[in-house]
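As a warm-up, study this chain.
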Amino acid sequence: QVQFVESGGGLVQPGGSLRLSCAASGFTFINYAMAWYRQTPGKERELVASISRAGRLTDYKDSVKGRFTVSRDNSKNTVYLQMNSLKPEDTAVYYCKVPQFAHWGQGTQVTVSS
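Now compare it with the structure written out below.
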């Protein structure tokens, strides 16, 4: 079945960096665009970044432009989110998924704090 396994989260100081990974399975990965979302308690999940099937097109939430970079390796069925210059407001649980699919993974917690 469809599965998304996110990893790479953790505690980092403001200004620091993290690289999130998402291993996907259960579908033909190269046929679908992928996206990263995040959620904080009491708020709805929000779209952070997306990447096209071949990885040529990317899009970002305004607040992360210039700091986050989404990429994918279709040979590994994996999508990445490089996060630099992290801010406390980036603290959230981060998820990856195919936008058209209903299924969500378990997410990975990112905490930005001194």
